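This entry is passed on directly below:
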Amino acid sequence: MKQPVNYGGQAVIEGVMMRGPRFFAVACRRANGEIVETRENIEGFIHKWAWLHRPFLRGTLALIDSMALGSKALRFSANVAMPDAPDAKGKDGKVGSVNDIAIAGTMALSLALGVGFFMLLPSLVAGLSHRWVSGGFGLNLVEGGIRLVIFLGYLSLISRLPEIRRIFQYHGAEHKTINAYEAGADLTPASVQGFTRIHPRCGTSFILIVLIVATLAHTALGWPVWYLRLLSRIALLPFVAGISYEIIRYAGRHRDKVWLQKLLAPGLKTQLLTTREPTDDQVEVAVRALKLVLDADGTLELPEVSSEKSEVNSRQYPHVR
C-alpha cells in the first residue's frame, strides 16, 4: 500500500517554507505587500538512497536535512526583508553576502548556546543536588527536569518579543494550511482559518519528545564526571533523535487514535507557545508556498479523504486547551 505524502514546513522571516519529498518552496511578504517566492528541487542523497530511510536511521538524517533546508529558507527570507530595511544594501546595491555571514554566525552561536544552556548547564546544576538526591537514576531525572524547565521558560520568554510573535503567527499559518490540505479542504485563507494551529508533526513537539527520550536514555549511563556526561549526551543524540522521529511520525499517521493524542498532549500543548493565530494575509503566504510545492509535485489537486479523517484533521484538540 502506497504511503501518503507528508508535507510540512516552517516559519521564516515574514514568510513560510513548505516542503515535500522532492521540492521545497518559500514565500515571503515584503513591506510593500508583494509576495516574493522561490522553489527548488531538493532531491539529494538522503532522498535517493533507500537504505537511509530505515527506521531509527532516517530520524537523524531527516533532522540534518531539515536544518540545512531551514537555513537555506531563512537566508532567502532575510534577503527578501533586507531591501525593505534602511541601509540594507551595500555600495554596489547588492544584497546577499552579509546575510549569509550573519546567518551562519547566528546559527553557530545558537548551536554553542544550545549546548551550553540545554546540555551543560542542566547537568552541572543537577550535580549540585547530590546531597539530596542519591544515585545516577535520580540525578538524571533532576537534570531532565531542569532541562525541560529551561526549554519551556525560553519559549515563554521569546514569545513576548514582537518580532518572534510574528514568526509564531506564520508558524500557525503553516500548521493551519497543512491541516487544511490533509483534510481535503479548499486552500483559501477563509477555509484554512477554520483549522487548528496544532499539528502532531510539529518540531516543537519533536523537541519535547527528544527531551523526554534523552532523559530516559541518560539514566542507563549512570552519573559519570561532568565532561564524560557532556560527551555521552552528544554521542546519544543520533539514537535519541531516531527514536523521537519514529514516535512523532507514528503520531502524525494515527491522529484518529485519541489515546495516542492524549498521551502526546504535553507536546501538542507546547505548540500553543510557538504558534499564534495568523492573519488572513499570513495564511495567504503559507498557502502560496504549499501550492508551489504541490504544483511541482503534480499533486495540486486536494487529496481525497473520508469524512471521519476530515473531522480528525479539523478538530481543535480539546484535550490540549
Observations:
- Residues 97-127 form the longest helix (31 residues).
